[in-house]
Amino acid sequence: MMSASNIKCSQAQELMSPYIDSMAEPDECERLESHLEECPPCQRQLQSYKSLRSMIARIEPVRPPADLVLDTRVRLSHARSGNWYDRVEILFNNVLKPVVMPAVSGIALTVLSFGLLIGSLGMNFRTQNMRTDVGVLEQPVGMTDRSLVPTGSSVVTDSSEPLSVLADVGSSGKVLGYKVIGGVQTPAVTRWINNLLWPAHFTPATRNNEPIPSTIVLSFVNVRS
Amino acid sequence: MRRELAYYDLEQSVGAIGSVGSAAESQDAAFVRRLQANEDAAYDELVRTYNASIYHVAFRMLGDPSEAADAVQDIFLKVFRNIGSFRGDAALKTWVFRVGLSEILNRLRWWKRRHRISTISVDDDHNGERTAYCIRDTAPSPEQALESREQDLAIQEALSRLSSDHRSIVVLRDIEGFSYIEIADILNISVGTVKSRLARARTDMKKSLIRYLSVQRV
């Protein structure tokens, strides 16, 4: 529709958004208003713009999570006290992640693809003639001595803390020395460990089937008098 | 004589607005100095003042409660890191929202690159928890509450269909009530661009929400 105001409905509608915010220029207001006087469809359009604005303005405010303020304060506090972790994290998230991650992933994928391609082409290696290092075969210390299960022994401690002992085992399988690294250490406990470990015999650790000295950690739980 | 009186009144009002403005500016400046001095109480106040509105903007922009919460924390960290460079060219609120929108738009770009599709469940509340609808003080009937809830979701869905540039303008103008000049300042664009983008965004919103808009026959 073309009215005496010399603007079309489409032009009038372009002016409606700034008009309802009182941000249209005076001459634009004048042209729109004179168009509206003669154009009922545009009057309805203007009303729908106003209705839209008030509908959006009535939108329910979103409540932030209850712990957001606390979490934010904690993170701010860390950052303000010079915690470099947060600074690095922010830098990573905001700068490096968007750029570096896709780049690194792309490069890694390319390298992997080429690797697989080259591998599948064979490179004409005759593996049957290649000397292979099997790697050093090692076996840990074994416990075959039944006396190490302290069912009948007694020790004067009621601590619930496990008793941990670091023991050196020689290539013969005998205990060469030990150190209590956890649990309550009393003379009674020391005696109990001495009685247990000095006579004990372990299957020594081996490397290439040769016995070697090693260190073991023994842990005893529920040690009771 | 009438014109002189009118000018006199205008000057009086401008003077009054000016003095209110300068008082607010000096309060802002004092507050910024406290922030720059790394004062605990100032940061607590900053978080208390802007937490809810920034979360609201972040939620409306990102459409995801946990993403919005993460964004809010990062925004405050950015404010802390950059407060030293704040020169008072804009109001502190405008500057904080500028930092906020920059962070939010970065996140949107990041997610857009990964073709993330966000969905909104009508059973979820804004915190992503399945709870009953919150009844307001005005005690609407269950039907009104449901209708309001439905409109809220429709608005959020209509917002999510807009481009991030258009969405940010609608959120800042129609939800947060910023002026065109403030929006131009926050988004670092001209007022003319704000005007044209807002017009296009509102036209799109109107199309999406047409069935909720009450238009009487004239």
Throw out a few tags for this protein.
heterodimer, A: 225 residues, alpha+beta, three-stranded antiparallel β-sheet, 6 helices, B: 218 residues, mainly alpha, 8 helices, disordered N terminus
Fold and architecture overview:
The complex is a heterodimer of chains A (225) and B (218). Helix content of chain A is 47%, strand content 13%. With 225 residues, chain A is of the alpha+beta class. In chain A, a hairpin with a 5-residue loop joins β2 and β3. The longest helix of chain A has 38 residues, at 84-121. Chain A is elongated, with a radius of gyration of 41 Å. With 218 residues, chain B is mostly helical. Helices cover 72% and strands 0% of the residues of chain B. Chain B has 8 helices and no strands. Chain B has helices spanning 2-36, 40-62, 65-82, 92-113, 142-161, 164-175, 180-187, 191-208. The longest helix of chain B has 35 residues, at 2-36. Chain B is globular, with a radius of gyration of 20 Å. The model of chain B is unreliable at 1-18 and 116-137 (pLDDT under 50). The interface between A and B is large, with 44 and 57 residues.
Write the element-wise H/E pattern of chain A from the N-terminal end onward. HHHHHEEEHEEE
**Principal-axis shape of chain A:** elongated
Structural class, from secondary structure content of chain B?
A: mainly alpha
Largest two-chain interface: A-B, 44 and 57 residues
Trace the largest sheet of chain A across and list its strands.
1-4-5
Overall shape of chain B: globular
Report, as a whole number of angstroms, the end-to-end distance of chain A.
103 Å
The value of Rg of chain B in angstroms is: 20 Å
Strand percentage of chain B: under 5%
Report the mean per-residue pLDDT of chain A as an integer: 77
| Averaged pLDDT of chain B | 80
What percent of residues of chain B adopt helix (DSSP H or I)?
over 70%
Number of strands of chain B: 0
The assembly state of the depicted protein chains is: heterodimer
Q: How many separate helices of chain A?
A: 6
**Largest sheet composition of chain A:** 3 strands, antiparallel
Distance between the termini of chain B: 42 Å
Q: What is the tally of helical segments of chain B?
A: 8
Unreliable stretches covering 5 or more consecutive residues of chain B: 1-18, 116-137
